[in-house]
Amino acid sequence: MAALAIAVVISQFRTAYLERELAVRTQTEHYVKAMEAHVLYSIQSVDLSLISFANAIKVLSAKQSRSPETMTDLLSSRGASVNSDYWITFIDPKGNAIATSIGNSVIGASYADRDYFKIHLGNSYKDKLFIGGPAVGKISKKRLFFLSRRVETATGEFLGVVAAPVNVDRYVKVFENSRFNADISITLVHAGGKVIARVPNFDQAFGRDLSGTALFEGVRKANAGTYKTHSVIDDLNRIFSYRVIDGLPLIIVVGSNDSETNRLLQQNYLTAGAGLAILLLLMISAGHFSLRTYRRQEERELRYRTLYSASREMERQLLVNEESMKLASLLFQNSGEGMMVVDANGQILTINPAFSLLSGYTEKKLIGHRAYELASHRHDQEFFDDIFACVRSTGHWNGELWQQSKDGEEFLASMVVNAVYDEQGNPFRYVALLSDITQKKASEELIWRQANFDTLTGLPNRNMLYEHLRQEMKKTDRSQLPMALVFVDLDYFKEINDTLGHDKGDVLLKQVANRLLSCVRTSDIVARLGGDEFTVILSELRKPADVERTAQEILKKMSTPFQLGEDIAHISSSIGIALYPHDGADADSLMKSADKAMYGAKQKGRNRCNYANSGEKTTETVYK
């Protein structure tokens, strides 16, 4: 009987221990996902700055990209987008630092031996982000790891590397604030094996190689998993969960040594030992009348087992619920996204620290106010009525809206709203997640403009010209009104550049663009192909004479002297004209016809316009 009791109790303890271990594994897996979201968000923010700088440098002239003064001005003008956790450095093709966003401390230092510079000398990371391993900064002496992108011209020529050294201390602080007890360890590891950040024991762990440990044995098998091993850093047995961040050479590892489980297990062993000793004494003392009390003892033992099982289940549920609440609170307080909870009437109940940072308001200032009061005046009441109608009918809404911070500054936010329902199925809370995407939108707009517009004149470039040309051809097909493509090439522009300099040449090109715009209708398109070549799309022509009149006006305006500061420039223009669909059935053939007609005008003496037609003949008009 005693042996059976001992076996039952040991079995119960074993089951309780395994359940506790499973709860710890679940906890570390949730922790890993939360930390992965923070690291991924921070890396994407830094990469957005790198892309913006790389695109800005790409459109500079060769002289400007080699000028430390120009590069320093470029980086410092965008310093508002860079925080104290990282900075931007531009490195030339020889590996020397040209400029940085934080001053002149690194200018002239050689980074040719760094892994991120060597990798960008080839094309294996063309248009890709490279994340290097941890290292101590040459000048700053800070513990860093590096994000970098290759910078090249539009033709693929290597201009250098734009790098962002990231201060590892930012992750150490976040990891430390995220731990709700001392048993938790959080580590960020580079795929090359070295530790980037860890709490606790950061000083001993930084740069330590873990490639030969159980972690990388698991990584080679799967991108996520859980294992139990002895930590080589702080000499503790831990349960670890890890995740390889998708698309990045980074691994998040969270461990727990679960000292609480061991303490509870020892306590239960002591309690069980004392209980079993008492049970044996009672069995010996009551043995002489066991037959009379057998049924009563059996009922007592059954109640004991039932009560014991119920107490263990209650303990397990309390532990799970407590950990879930702590984890939910941790995510709410440390989320990189702003979070706001409102009641069914739209009144604010609480906000997290990220929302305070975003809006400038403290939680105390906002409680009791309506959520729509924080929005910009760009949105009317109907806009918010539509949002609430959507949430009430579907349970969620996501989109973009303009918000206004405490200091009056407006910013564009991406917002997701989800409804929380009570036991009767009625919505009684709404949770909103917000993130500032103003910089992201501005960067996208900058990249789009650099790809589609000429940086000097502001006119559409060759890419945008083709898009307009195809659209105008479709309009012509529908309206049956002809369209003309006009090529304008400046005569003697090279002489202006050679005698007055390229700066004066740029001023001349800007004035040419303005004069061309003054010669056409607002519905017409003026574009710059490059150099001294311009194009004009004259759409929906009702009279053939309209083309001739516009061409003569352009010849006149180009022949009028240009005032370039203290200098006066005299030029003229050669014009080629092609009509759609007569001179070309598609964009390429029409461009070739207009280009050929323009060269015909140059060969016949310049300062004239020349018409293309379906044959080899051309007609011409000379400006007098």
Automatic annotation (TrEMBL):
PROSITE patterns: GGDEF, PAC, PAS. Residues 324-368 form the PAS domain. It comes from the Bacteria. Residues 397-449 form the PAC domain. Residues 481-614 form the GGDEF domain. Keywords: Membrane, Transmembrane, Transmembrane helix. This is Diguanylate cyclase. It comes from Duganella levis.
